[in-house]
């Protein structure tokens, strides 16, 4: 699926994500397949994606776990309400889920992309969250990239790690 997405010119973190990238990664002592279980269902995805950090508190409203499906989460950023949404553009089990990231109510209508990627290692699986595509936002891109570079933490990946390792075979 990811190869097909690249061939059709659709975004994927495996292809060149551009120069402005926010990336967080963590090694999880579980297989790709086990971790993918936490991505492949809305209930499991919401349990680790919708966590509270110092700057943001979110809850997943929608996660249609398939290419062409829909993602939406709501919450607060610095005390102000925010709603991120977008189409799932890559769903490549057990390697990658990439979705659009827009906030239309805030005037952010051009998508950036968030990718959750899994890569096997001897010690387990490298899990990454990669936020890219800032160049599409024009002059606002570099500033928003810096906001998210500071804002993304390891909270989501640590919650994913806790769930995956607790139930690893």
Plain-language structure description:
The chain is α+β, with helices and mostly antiparallel strands and 169 residues long. Helix content is 26%, strand content 40%. The protein has 5 helices and 7 strands, in the order αβααββββββαα. It has helices spanning 2-7, 32-37, 42-49, 140-151, 155-166, and strands at 22-28, 56-63, 70-77, 80-92, 96-103, 108-121, 124-132. The chain has a 7-stranded antiparallel beta sheet. A hairpin with a 4-residue loop joins strand 5 (96-103) and strand 6.
Poorly predicted runs: none
CATH homologous superfamily identity: START domain
Structural class: alpha+beta
Q: How many strands, which pairing sense, and closed or not: the largest β-sheet?
A: 7 strands, antiparallel
Mean pLDDT: 87
What is the CATH topology?
Alpha-D-Glucose-1,6-Bisphosphate, Chain A, domain 4
Q: What is the first-to-last residue Cα distance?
A: 27 Å
Tell me which CATH architecture applies here: 2-Layer Sandwich
Characterize the overall form: globular
The run of helices and strands is HEHHEEEEEEHH
How many helical stretches?
5
Q: Could you tell me the strand content as a percent range?
A: 35-45%
CATH class: Alpha Beta
Instruction: Domain count, please report it.
Output: 1
